[in-house]
């Protein structure tokens, strides 16, 4: 059995994230009450900034274990990210260790964070990979859409792909929903249908979040 990421480590990561994010930026968190207080949950987060993961980790009401590309696990970041309960994943292969660890998080009633677009891009949920549907259906976990709306189109950035320091970053949590059709089927067709269902829900949430925040 693959080791399950540390919940205590993820809680430490959440506290570090709170300090960093509120120290560097001005987060505004909306809808955190929608996150189920217990049981397995998947955060589906749009991805346009390098700070999206740390931001959600810091402001979420529960400790979160993110699937993070293995390229980030270099030098001192490797033991640090592992220590705060994050999951290293090889995006270019079927990473069975990462899959097992992620399912372990859900089996123990934890929160799994996923960037369904797979990589940092426009952050508009235009391209969603099937992995999210697999974890949602196999892990029996509701999906909570999370929109991180920053200031990437504004001047004043000191570091590429980061919002300007002390700028407002909105994090909007949506209503949890079931990705599957209730049958528990994990066939290719069922996962394709679940992925389509997820994409519609996430896109609708992002549109609502933009209206709500004026972003």
UniProtKB/TrEMBL annotation:
Q: What molecular function does GO assign, one term?
A: 1-acylglycerol-3-phosphate O-acyltransferase activity
Q: What superkingdom does the record give?
A: Bacteria
The UniProt record lists the Phospholipid/glycerol acyltransferase domain at: 41-151
Kindly give the InterPro entries that the UniProt entry links to this protein. Plipid/glycerol_acylTrfase (IPR002123)
Signal peptide residues are none
Keywords assigned by UniProt?
A: Acyltransferase, Transferase
Q: Which GO terms describe its cellular component?
A: plasma membrane
What CDD domains does the entry give? Answer: LPLAT_AGPAT-like (cd07989)
Protein name from the UniProt record: Acyl-phosphate glycerol 3-phosphate acyltransferase
Supply the source organism for this entry: Streptomyces toyocaensis
Q: What is the lineage of its organism?
A: Bacteria, Bacillati, Actinomycetota, Actinomycetes, Kitasatosporales
């Amino acid at each position: 059995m693959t080791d399950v990421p540390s919940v205590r480590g993820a809680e430490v990561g959440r506290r570090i994230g709170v300090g960093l994010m509120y120290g560097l930026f001005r987060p505004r968190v909306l809808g955190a009450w929608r996150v189920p207080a217990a049981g397995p949950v998947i955060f589906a987060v749009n991805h346009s900034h390098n700070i999206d993961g740390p931001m959600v980790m810091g402001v979420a009401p529960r400790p979160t274990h993110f699937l993070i590309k293995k390229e980030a696990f270099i030098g001192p970041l490797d033991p640090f990210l592992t220590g705060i309960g994050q999951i290293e994943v090889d995006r270019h292969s079927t990473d069975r260790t990462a899959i097992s660890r992620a399912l372990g998080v859900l089996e123990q009633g934890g929160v799994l964070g996923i960037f369904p677009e797979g990589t940092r891009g426009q952050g508009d949920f235009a391209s969603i990979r099937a992995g999210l549907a697999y974890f949602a259906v196999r892990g029996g976990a509701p999906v909570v859409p999370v929109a991180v709306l920053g200031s990437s189109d504004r001047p004043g950035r000191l570091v590429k792909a980061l919002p300007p320091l002390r700028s407002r970053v909105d994090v909007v949590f949506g209503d949890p929903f079931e990705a599957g059709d209730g049958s528990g089927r994990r066939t290719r067709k069922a996962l394709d249908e679940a992925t389509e269902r997820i994409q519609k829900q996430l896109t609708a949430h992002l549109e609502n979040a933009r209206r709500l925040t004026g972003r």
